[in-house]
Amino acid sequence: DSGVTQTPKHLITATGQRVTLRCSPRSGDLSVYWYQQSLDQGLQFLIQYYNGEERAKGNILERFSAQQFPDLHSELNLSSLELGDSALYFCASSREGTANSPLHFGNGTRLTVT
Amino acid sequence: AQSVAQPEDQVNVAEGNPLTVKCTYSVSGNPYLFWYVQYPNRGLQFLLKYITGDNLVKGSYGFEAEFNKSQTSFHLKKPSALVSDSALYFCAVRDLRTGFQKLVFGTGTRLLVSP
Predict the structure, then answer these.
(1) CB A4 to CB B43 under 8 A?
(2) Average pLDDT of the residues in B88-93
(3) What is the DSSP letter of A72?
(4) What is the tens place of the pLDDT at every residue in A34-90?
């Protein structure tokens, strides 16, 4: 068990809808990262937050947004969903400040857009 | 750009035989390299990392990796494969440009260990 909790595990929704994915990082970890895993794109970095502030942005669509709250949990909001958004969405956390600290991943949320 | 390449989509090995999963990297500056494993319907689990020092790094579940600077490689190895090692393996490099610390992953290699 990595200590990173993601909810829900599965999400099935229709095109055009909006969903929210939730992540609780490991105790003590200030950084949260969101990744998307799909068959054709592999593991793509979406966005990173550190202690409530956006730190880095990757291949995140404008329809997607995220935030990290004062209690350090994070939410990824996906709107105007398209079929191509179907994927596994992972959250990871790490201790900040040391490049040698690994990322610890949750078990992911599987999003299916129909 | 910081990147890693995994040239093999799949590696097949018989149980009890040694296994190698290949990874090459391209970085500016010192490489911070990681290996992760993903089992079906699970998240990625950290196996081991190379930061500096010994070129042979030991990790979880009997895995080790050999860092080779001249060949810019970081291959994952295990002396004796188990059927339970069958999974998807990812090599990753830390992107330290401008202070960002995200991991950049390779495309993954599926390891299949036959009984």
Answers:
(1) yes
(2) 95
(3) S
(4) 999 998 778 999 999 999 999 888 889 999 999 999 999 999 999 999 999 999 999
- DSSP characters over chain B: --EEE---SEEEEETTS-EEE--EEE-SSS--EEEEEE-TTS-EEEEEEE-SS-SEEE-GGG-EEEEETTTTEEEEEESS--GGG-EEEEEEEE--GGG---EEE---EEEEEE-
pLDDT at A101: 81
Is the minimum CB–CB distance between A93 and chain B shorter than 8 Å?
no
CA-based end-to-end distance of chain B: 40
CA distance A7 to chain B (A): 13
Of B109, B94, B88, the closest CA to residue B25 belongs to B94
Q: How many residues does chain A have?
A: 114
The amino acid that residue B25 corresponds to is: Y
Task: Report the alpha-carbon angle A24-A25-A31, nearest 5.
Answer: 130
In angstroms, the CA B98 to CA A12 distance is 38
